[in-house]
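User: Some background: our group keeps a shared notebook of sequences we're curious about, and every so often someone picks one and asks for a predicted structure to add to the entry. Today it's my turn. The entry only has the sequence so far, pasted here. Could you supply the structure so I can complete it?
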Amino acid sequence: MRKYVLICVLAVLFSLGVVLGGNYNMMVGNTAEINGNTISLENVGSSGVVRLNINGVSYSVEGTEKHAGFEITVVNYTYDEILVNRKATLNISIYVAPGKVLMVGQSDTTHDKTVTLNNVGSTGSVRVFVIDNSETEICTITGTEICSGIKITVVDFYYDEYLKNRWAKLSFEEECFDSDGENYYEKGYCKTTRPNELYYDFCIDNSKLAEYHCIGEGVSSTCAYLTSGVYCKNGCRDGACLDYNKKISISDLTCNNGKITMKLKNEGGLDITHADLKVLIDNVDVSEEMYFGVIYVGSTFTSFIDKGYTGKHIILAVAPSNSVRQTVYCQGAVTTTTVASSICTDSDGGKDYYTKGTTLIKGSQYATDFCWNYDEGKYGSCEGNEEGCVLVEHSCKDYWDGTYGYGWKEKYKCPNGCKDGACIKETTECRIDEDCPKLVCIKAPCPQYKCLDGKCVLEYSTTTTLPKTDEKMCKEGGGEWKQFGSGCHDECWIVRSKEPVKCTMALSYGCDCGDDKCWNGRSCEDNYPTSSTTIPINRCPNGCLMNDICLPFGNRVKVESTPSYCDIDKTIKPQKEMEDSCMNDYECLSNDCSDSKCVSTYSLLQKIWEFLKNIFSFRS
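Assistant: Of course. Here's the predicted structure to add to the notebook entry:
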């Protein structure tokens, strides 16, 4: 009984993403064994940054961070000039990602929809059925995908030879997904399933960007962008603002007969001049002797210095946004080089207080910007404009010190408060509603900014935010929701088809728009409108389109005398032979899929009969 209760409690904790652990008081050099993992305290910095070694890998921790399956918080620390006297109190916890464990065939309800786990593949891909009202969408999830408006992530899985023993741990999130998280310098997309489409960021003109992002929550979320656009101070191209950084890389470095030759490439979005650069050889500044002209965006520039160099030399090239170092070996006419590596890079381009960035040193994570309250009694993560809450902004510098290396950090008090590693942007001032920016949404209802107390505030409609069903849209669009005697409805693509349309003989429901009008999937419109803005219709959302007939998933048909079936990826495929891998009976010629293989029912019965004969010594 106790064991059963413990299992139930652990199951609840795992489903909630609970962190399990406690405080550890550690001196530098101390080691703790936690759940079979070895964690050692290597160093404590004067600012409270600690370095831990977890199973042989070193990590820097400031505030609260997650590393190697642990959530680690620096509760307090003591810094001393003598290394062995430094200590820290750390809250080290095993972090369990949130999710719901489902066996094959089990279901869970989320966002007013039912998700059923249909199968689990050996590589971790899962097949799920998502039922929304009377509609069912079948999706194959690898990693993270959106299915019927729900972002589903495969957190963990178990594959077994027997279908009934397979399970997967799934997490469910909102139905809107923004690939770049409002990163103006990356062309991203926003995805939602009402309608099920991708909306890519695009340039309104040469200086304005339409940045799609998610607004709303849960089933009411949608993609939208500001009609006024985002101003790109360096211009807009191919759905992204041009990068304002001045970044370089060493694309070639050689040393022949004492002469060092280096080719620098402009990796940023602005032209780089010689005045922007500093070049050091073995920590000696040779910028004046090794001259670089203008390095245009995407181009290279080659310069050299001839001082009879021999042996090993370290080259450091420093630009406003990053620095790169490479080693070159000089020995007469023989040249060997090491691979160039970036010393320090910052994803938000330096000190950008309004963008959350991550600083990398030599390709490894140094730190990510975060909000923190250093006041006594409030020490810890924070949000908003509370007293003592500051932004800890990380960036790069072009020299080394014993505390931060090539990195740097600054505590910055945000004027409008701090949230999720960045300063909160000031809301637009206004006098009337027309002064506020306007949003374009890909589905209704679309919230808009209203002028309240001199500030533009996003205001949602007071009407229902639940997605509209086809029946509701039909009635609101002026049509009548009714039963049809075949698979053909009063749909515009059928009305306008130049070829005869074959209809499946089955009772079905659809929208009847009346005389001289047809249903375009969202509203009724004229059968033959003069405008060319008709919304394209998915003619077969739950099956395979074949000769203008929509075959439901799993239906079998002969294609040029070849037995075939309609697969869930909406394609017609030949049925499989004996011993071929399968997931459903209809994929097999024998119509029998067992243990993920096509088998013969007769062959299986024959094997059972032979087995029984051997047991009971039957004779034919």
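Suggested note for the entry: The first helix runs from residue 2 to 15. The chain is about 5% helix and 45% strand.
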